[in-house]
Amino acid sequence: MGMGTGTRRVCEKRQRVKEQ
Questions:
Q1: What are the residue ranges of helices labelled H in the chain?
Q2: What does the CA dihedral 11, 17, 19, 20 come to, rounded to 10 degrees?
Q3: Residues contacting residue 10 through CB under 8 Å, at least 6 positions apart
Q4: How far apart are CA 11 and CA 4, in angstroms?
Q5: Are 7 and 1 in contact (CB under 8 A)?
Q6: Can you tell me whether residue 6 is helix, strand or coil?
Q7: pLDDT category, 5, cuts 50, 70, 90?
Q8: Cα–Cα distance between 10 and 19 in angstroms, integer?
Q9: Confidence of residue 3 (pLDDT cuts 50, 70, 90)
Q10: Are the C-beta atoms of 6 and 12 separated by less than 8 Å?
Q11: Is 1 helix (H, G, I), strand (E, B) or coil?
């Protein structure tokens, strides 16, 4: 990664989905 365009948001969203 390393796009700098909402990468942190994607990581957080992906982690939330994985936790579900």
A1: 7-19
A2: 170
A3: 1
A4: 12
A5: yes
A6: coil
A7: low
A8: 14
A9: low
A10: no
A11: coil
